[in-house]
Structure formats: C-alpha cells, structure tokens
Design goal:
Layout lengths: L1 H19 L5 H29 L6 H24 L12 H24 L7 H37 L3 E6 L3 H12 L5 E7 L9 E2 L2 E2 L7 H8 L3 E4 L6 H10 L6 E4 L4 H7 L6 E2 L15 H5 L5 E5 L4 H12 L4 E6 L2 H15 L3 E5 L5 H11 L3 E4 L6 H6 L1 H21 L4 E5 L10 H19 L3 E6 L2 E3 L5 H10 L4 E3 L5 E2 L1 E3 H14 L4 E4 L5 E2 H11 L10 E3 L18 E6 L3 E5 L7 H13 L3 H11 L19
Helix pairs in contact: 2-3, 2-5, 3-4, 4-5, 11-18, 13-15, 15-16, 15-20, 16-21, 20-21
C-alpha cells in the first residue's frame, strides 16, 4: 500500500508540473550555465580580438598587464547585463525581432557597465576603438549563438525535404502580415512538405521585395507564368478570410494549371499545438461566397434570456446549427428532437462539452401527434423552430404520400400542439422550392408556410416562415456529392449545364433565421441570397480547388433534369410583394392569404396520403397551392372534415 501511495503521488506531481509549467531545476540550470559560459567565452574572445586589432598584434605593456582585470570586469558586466535582460532564457526555436533587439541592448548595456566599473575603480580604460570593436564583435557573437542554430536547422530541414523528393513546390498568395506569419511558421516546423519558392501580391510596391529571403514575384496576373516557370504545384492563400473576391480570382486564374489550393485559417503553429496535423485547410466552396458573419447586439441577445426553445429536425445540418447558435446566445434550456437517434446522439456528445446542463435531447417522430403534444407539454417551450422535413426532391417525387405525412402532417402536429400549449413563437424553415413549386417537396413547403400563417392569424402565436435557398455543405447538398466524385476520379454528375441555384453558408442562414424569428417582422421572411450560382461553375471551381483540370482530369456527365426539378429557383412569387427590407439581409413578404377551408383540405390530403392515393395527393396539392406545376391533371376535390 505504501508503494502504491508513493507512486500515485509521483504521478500527481508530474501532472501538476505539466499543467503549471513548472519543471525540475536540473535541466534549466545546466542549460542556463551553458549559455552564460558561451557568452563569457564570446566576451573574452571579443576583447582579445579587439586588442589585437587595435595594436596590430603587439599589445602595449600597460594594457597587457591590465588584460586580466579587463577580462574579469567585462565578463562580470556582460553576465549582469544578460541576466537583467534574461538572455539566458532564450527560445532557440521561437525567437524573433524583439528578441534580437534584446541582444543588442544587452550588448550595449554590458559595454557601458564595463567602462563605468573601470572608471569607478580608477583603472586605465582601454582605447575607445577597443571598446567599440569589442561591442560589435560581442553583439555579433551573441546574436550568432542564439540565431545560428535555428537558421541551420531550417536549412537542414529544407535540404532533407528536397532530398526525400516529397516536397511540394509552393507559392504563398499574400505578402502582408498573414503571408509573413505563415512563412515564418513554416520555417519553424518540419512537419510539412511545403517548399516555399516565393510570394504573390497585387501591391506593386511589394514586387521584387524579399520576405524571409523569398521574393515577391508579382501580382495575380503573373501567377500562371510564375507557376509554369517554377513548376509550382501548391498555392497557400494567406489573406483575410473576408476577401472571397480574391479567392475567386485565384481559383479562376489557376483553372487548368494543376495546382492545389489551400487557405490559411490562423497559423500553422497554432493548429499544431491545438491538435490537427495540417495547418491549412483545403479551399472550400463557401470560401468563394462574399458573406459576412451574422452578429447579434446586446438587445437581440437579451430577447433570448430565460427562453426555453424546442428544435425539431435537430440532427440535420440546419437544425444542429440552430441548436448551437441558440445555446451560444444564452437560451436557458433547449430541447433537440429528431427521429434520427444516431445523429441526435452525436449532436448531444458535441454540444454537451460546452453547454452541459442546458441541452436536452429526445427521439420523436413528428408524425405521431400524441407523442409530439406530450413531449411539448412536459418541456413547455417558449419558442419552437421547426426544421424537420423530407427534403430530397426526386425521392419525394417518387413517394409523394410520405412527403405529405412528414412535411404536412408532421408540421401540422407540431404547429397545432404549439398553438394549444400557448407557445409564443413558431418558426417554420421553408425553401425557395416553395415558390411556384414544380415538385411535391416544394409544394409541401408552401403548404407549411400557409399553415403557419393561418395559425398565426387566428391565435396569439407569433408564426413566421423563413424561406431561403441551398446551403453549402448541408446534408444531401451537391457539395459533398461533388467532393466524393472528385476524390473518386470522376465523373462529376450534373443534371443540366444551365442549372442555377441560390447558395449561402449554414451559419449565415441560421443566424438570419434567428434574427427573423425574434425580430417579429412578419409571417413570411425571405433571406437575401445574392446572385444565383451556376452549378456547372461551382463544379469547375471545386475541381480547380483540388488541383485538377476540369474536363481533363475530371469529366462531367449531364444526366438531365430529374422529376420535380427546375433549371432556376426563385425566392419570391409573382403574387407576392416585399413590404420592407431588414438590414439588406431579410425581406418581409406579403402575399396571398391561406385558401378557404384550408384545414378541411389538409384533412382530405392526410387521408389521401394514408391511402397511398398519389393522384389525389397531387390534385389536392394543386388545389391548396394553385402555383404548383404538376404534369398530372387535377381531379375533382371534395371538402371533408376538419384537420
């Protein structure tokens, strides 16, 4: 027992030393002693060199006799100056300009102390030329002692990397502070394969300048020529992440040049210390979007204080981001529900590390009205964000009854339970496919908008439907599919060369959804998404980002429009009108009111879906959503019992 106790204490002490930065004295004392020893040797050698140079090798007798005194006083002065400026506590790997200045100041201080002590001791001082020469030689020696190992190690690593044959001939885009920091960090670390050949920057004042011994080779216009001349195969973009226009230009210039493009998030050394092995992440499509992060002021944050929020579809890309942003903004309790238990489990594991105690999760099928109402009655949310939905257009086109059961019936269950239990806010996540829908999925989203508006008009519930387009990187979007196809060597499949879609990033979309939900702007809000992007252009950019050439390394395959798909999506219907704009990001829309007998029609739609009567399902959708574009002729619709 005594032995076990002793070993336990030893382990605890080691752990404590690691956390506090404390180290045993042995190794530092030896290291400091060696540094002081070499500094003393440099001082002695510098004094002798200065004396020999001054007297041309024949030192006068008076000075020769005093040489031991000079040596002792100089060593003591240098020791004191170096100790005051802590030159013995030197990082041979991370030293920089500030540390070099400390060496120069210590050298000057030591020389000043040397002369002052000799004066106070009334000892004959050496000639001024000796004092000046000794200062320069000592300063040069101390600088060499501290910087030469790092410089030598850097050249050795570069030599070994080139000899191994696995180095990547690299240019850094951006010769500003970020580019200089990136190059400096690359020099400090040997755990990469980048052989930096130079910099590219559009500032003409920087051209032909040297940064860390590497030239600034010109602007972006010169990039193709430089890549060909230097046989470059990698570009590291070291510019602020808020400059997507520059990123787009780099990708366009490099199209067809077989270069891999990566972007700098912070710093290589930072990421080494934090865990990930690679410093630069591969350029992603969202880096091309000119998007600014959505911020919340103190008033908006205060609206979330003491709120209890329920999020459906919480395991999806949009739902999980809603959960994370709400928790980060300070909601008191959040209930995340989904039928995907594995995704829900992973969400809980990820968020509990930071938000433990405020997050609850539960498995729920929103098509089960009793389960939805029971869960909501227990949790008593103030606000509900409804993101659960079937969203794959071709799959829902093949199974329209399932789309109705989940997207319409499930939405009705959550919405009516929220109304019954006096929920204050209900936010419905809609889609641009709800505008003049050509698919069952789009039509169900339009029905969800109408249901939200109808309940908001007849009760105290603040209902808001938020409509936006595609989000980059979401589950089931084209970006992960294109990435998989590119990694597999192609082909990249595209339905039509002229297909265009609106895109935004997941964090921006969710941030604007929260602003619309708590801004009380109206019953329907549309997020501003900029100009639509041609899918073929997006695919070309992703291939170029991977360092490949479109239609040479990776081929395209056009498969034709799938059932329910449109070439171009819209955000506002012809019979809708934008009444106001909020911060150039959110448009408040007024439009047609829900049709008469909406709930009776929904009940009939529910029965048609339960009976798997696809023809009647489409006909009822056409009745509820007149702009629904279906190839099938609508049948006669009868109104039955209430929903």
């Amino acid at each position: 027992m005594r032995l076990a106790y002793t070993r336990s204490n030893i382990v605890s002490a080691d752990a404590l030393n690691h956390r506090t930065g404390f180290r045993p004295l042995g190794r530092p004392v030896v290291r400091f002693s060696l540094v002081f020893f070499f500094d003393a040797a440099i001082a002695i050698a510098s004094l002798w060199i200065a004396m020999l140079l001054r007297f041309e090798g024949n030192i006068e007798a008076a000075y020769w006799a005093l040489l031991p005194t000079y040596t002792a006083v100089l060593v003591a002065s240098r020791f004191a100056a170096n100790l005051v400026l802590r030159l013995h506590r030197w990082s041979f790997r991370l030293s920089g300009l500030h540390d070099g200045a400390r060496v120069v100041v210590a050298a000057a201080g030591g020389t000043g102390a040397f002369v002052l002590v000799l004066f106070l001791l009334r000892v004959l001082t050496p000639p001024r030329s000796v004092v000046v020469l000794e200062l320069f030689v000592s300063a040069a020696g101390m600088v060499a002692l501290r910087f030469a190992p790092r410089l030598g190690w850097t050249y050795m690593v570069q030599f070994v990397r080139v000899r191994k044959g696995n180095s990547r001939r690299t240019l850094i885009i951006g010769a500003g502070a970020a580019g200089e920091m990136l190059y400096r960090d690359l020099q400090r670390s040997g755990d990469h394969h980048y052989q930096v050949l130079g910099f590219i920057d559009d500032d003409p004042a920087m051209w032909s300048s040297l940064l860390g011994g590497r030239r600034v080779l010109g602007g972006l216009a010169a990039l193709p020529r430089v890549i060909e001349r230097l046989r470059v195969n990698t570009l590291l973009i070291a510019i602020p992440r808020k400059s997507p226009a520059v990123v787009r230009e780099v990708v366009a210039v490099c199209a067809g040049l077989n270069v891999q493009i990566k972007v700098l998030p912070v710093s290589y050394i930072y990421f080494q210390e934090q865990g990930p092995a690679s410093m630069l992440h591969d350029l992603a499509p969202q880096d091309l979007l000119a998007r600014q992060p959505v911020s919340f002021n103190e008033h908006e944050r205060s609206l979330l204080a003491d709120r209890r929020v329920m999020v459906t579809g919480a395991a999806g890309s949009i739902g999980s981001e809603i959960c994370e942003q709400l928790l980060s903004l300070g909601v008191t309790q959040l209930l995340a529900v989904d039928i995907n238990e594995n995704g829900l489990y992973l969400l809980e594991r990820r968020l509990r590390k930071t938000y433990d105690g405020r997050l609850q999760v539960d498995v729920v099928d929103i098509r089960d009205r009793g389960r939805v109402e029971s869960l909501m009655a227990r949790f008593r949310p103030n606000d509900v964000f409804h993101a659960a939905a079937h969203k794959h257009v071709p799959l829902m086109e093949a199974a329209p009854a399932e789309a109705i059961k989940n997207n319409v019936g499930g939405t009705g269950n959550v919405l009516l339970a929220a109304e019954k239990l006096k929920v204050e806010r209900f936010t419905f996540i809609s889609s641009d496919k709800a505008v003049a829908p050509s698919s069952v999925m789009g039509a169900t989203k339009r029905v969800g908008e109408l249901m939200t508006r109808a309940v908001a008009q007849r009760s105290d519930l603040r209902g808001c439907a938020v409509r936006f387009g595609n989000v980059l990187g979401s589950d089931g979007s084209v970006v992960p599919l294109f990435r998989q196809q590119i990694e597999a060597g192609g082909p990249v499949t595209i339905t039509h060369p002229d297909m265009r879609r609106y895109f935004m990033t997941i964090p921006e979309a969710v941030g604007l959804v929260l602003k619309a939900a708590y801004g009380n702007f109206g019953e329907l809000c549309v997020l501003e998404m900029g100009e639509p992007v041609r899918i073929l252009d997006l695919a070309r950019q992703m291939i170029s980002m991977a360092g490949l050439v479109p239609e040479v390394d990776i081929q395209f395959e056009f498969t034709g429009l799938r059932p329910g798909e449109k070439l171009n999506e819209e955000l506002v219907m012809e019979d809708e009108e934008a009444t106001c704009s909020v911060g150039d990001k959110i448009q408040v829309i007024s439009g047609p009111q829900p049709p008469p007998h909406l709930w009776q029609l929904l009940a009939e739609l529910d029965r048609a879906a339960a009976a798997e009567d696809e023809t009647r399902v489409r006909a009822l959708l056409k009745t509820i959503v007149p702009t629904y574009q279906t190839d099938q002729k609508p049948s006669i619709v009868t109104v039955a019992s209430s929903f």
